[in-house]
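User: What would this chain look like folded?
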Amino acid sequence: MVKNTYKNIKISGIAAAVSNCEQLLEDCVADPRAPKDFNLAKFMKSTGVKGRYLCREKQTPSDLCVAAAEQLLTEKEIDRTEIGVLVYVTQSPDYRSPATACVMQHRLGISENCVAFDLNMGCSGFVCGLNTTAGLLCSSTAKKALLLCGDLTGQNMERDSISDSGYYLFGDGGGCYAV
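Assistant: Here's the prediction, encoded as C-alpha cells.
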C-alpha cells in the first residue's frame, strides 16, 4: 500500500451543501417500479439512511460545491487571493470543456493565477484529490487550496434501475475542504 506524508499540510475546514429537495425512502419504495421484496426497515436499520437529497432541475453539483465553498471561505475568513490550487473531483462535470473547476474558480472570485482542474473519479476520488492537492501545495509557491467534491449520483441512479440498492443509498451533494 502506498503511504504519503506531507509536512505542514492540513485540512483546516470542511463544509458541505445539499439541495433542499429531499426524497424519503418510504416514497421511493412506494414507486410501482420498486421491487416488491425490498425490505425498507432492514435497509434503513443497516445503513442508517432514511432519505436522500437530489439536485433540483438545472442545479448541478458544482452549484452545491460553490455554496459550500462560499460558506467555508466566509466562516474561516480565508483570503481568496491566497488560494493557489482548486481541484474539483467529480464523475458528473457541468461541461466537457472547460473544466468545471475553472468555472467555479471564476464564480468564487479566485485569482486567474490559481491552478484549477477537474479529476474525474468516483469512490477513491477524495483520497486522490487530497493527495493531488497536498502534492501541489508542497511543490509550488501556493499557500492555500480548495478541494471540492461533488456528484449527481442520485440522479444518475434515477436513470438506471430502481431495483438496484444503490438507488436508495446515493444522493446528490457537494463538499469543500480548505487545505
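Residues 61-75 form the longest helix (15 residues). If you want, I can go into more detail on any region.
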